[in-house]
Amino acid sequence: MNIGEKLKLKRKKAGLTQEQVAEKMNITRQTLSNWEVGKNYPDIDSIIRLSQIYKLSLDELLLGKILFKGESVMTKKLSFEEIERLLKKHYPDAVNVRELNGGLVSQTYFFEAGEQRYIFQVGGYVENYKKESFIDKEFNGKLPVRRVLEVHKTDDQLAYSISKFINGDKLFDLNSQQFYDVVPNVLNLLDTLESVEVPDDKQGFGYLDSTGNASFPTWLDFITAVYNDDIYNWDPIEKKGLDSEVVNKAINELKKHIHCIRLGKKNLVHGDLGSYNLLAKDNEITGIIDWTLSVYGDHLYDKANFLFWNEDKLQPLIKEIKNKYITNNETKETIYCYMLRIGLEELYNTVIREEVGYDIEWVANRVNEIIDSFLDE
Question: Which stretches make up the HTH cro/C1-type domain (predicted)?
Fold first, then answer.
């Protein structure tokens, strides 16, 4: 979905006509229409004004991103003074403490102590920090992951971790030329991730726990779980405000094509690769962060994740992924199944479980778009 389509979707969700928005902004209806069909785009002042009219943050307006996926909203945020006190409990010489872009789930800070630089995160679940610690201990040296030094809870049960700092910028923050230059190394990283061996003593498929084990006996069980009534109960979907047609259509399509999934090698899969959790510096990928949604399964699941979210920023990379990995109809069908599962999981977590996630209208529209056109591309 391009920026114009996002602007149109947000306007409709706000219940406003083009005429009403144009009047509020003191522009012509045609100007707004041109933005929404992608003939040209608003300047930053106009984007800010649109976000105010639609009562959305800039992230919500442009990215469709409400909150971070798979987490509860952080109910308590620590003040800067509380952060400093907590840091100095472990690092009395901590200096240059500053907040980084994090989210509503956790607070993320940079600090220095001695000659070293660190990342401090607080909020979310302690299990997720322990999962990051497992990834570090098992795969650091094979993959550019953060060195997790400590995982703790505060007296009132807030989880937090301290990790080594990785130098680099998120792909989202790179300019167009910088991103274009780093694309070959993102592809190399995907090759490296695919080559990593899962330890023989780690069991199961699907989402990892903090010990590095997963709960599904087979990869196919994980993929088909979204239409297993004992695991995913879709019955309340209409009462929760989402038309069940898109869910039923996606499930039927997944069932129709599920025969194409054949797992050769059990891979470590990040599960949420995108512009926010890959770090780069000087055209090199320096870090893969946030392993909360990592799974054991098919490496193509990571490629399907790129294709499902279809970020505007990542279009040069997405084009290369399609060229490199969609080499025959069977591979295309497999990725199609994974994209449907990713969409269904997002709908279920956000609508049924009422976890925070992305704009549900965008996700539903994206699922429909994939069903209508992906196999015919």
Answer: 7-61
Q: Walk across the sheet containing 159-164 and list its strands.
A: 95-100, 106-113, 116-123, 159-164, 148-153
CATH 3.90.1200.10 domain residues, the chain: 169-376
Q: Which residue ranges does the chain devote to CATH 3.30.200.20?
A: 80-164
Tens digit of each residue's pLDDT (9 = 90 or more) over 217-252 = 999 999 999 999 999 999 999 888 888 999 999 999
Q: Which residue has the tokens 């990790």?
A: 163
Q: How far is CA 79 from CA 97, 107, 109, 163, 165, in A?
A: 12, 10, 12, 20, 22
Alpha-carbon distance of 285 to 281, in angstroms, equals: 7
CATH of span 3-63: 1.10.260.40
How many CA atoms, within 13 angstroms, populate the side-chain half-sphere of residue 339? 27
Looking at the domain covering 80-164, what would its CATH class be? alpha beta
Instruction: Provide the H-helix boundaries in 96-239.
Output: 126-139, 176-195, 219-224
Please state, as a whole number, how many other Cβ atoms lie within 10 Å of the Cβ of residue 248: 13
pLDDT digits (tens, 9 = 90+) for 62-113: 655 443 343 444 456 788 999 999 999 999 999 999 988 755 567 899 999 9
At residue 16, what is the residue type? L
- Fold category of 169-376 in CATH: Aminoglycoside 3'-phosphotransferase; Chain: A, domain 2 (3.90.1200)
Task: Summarize the confidence of residues 180-194 as an average pLDDT.
Answer: 97
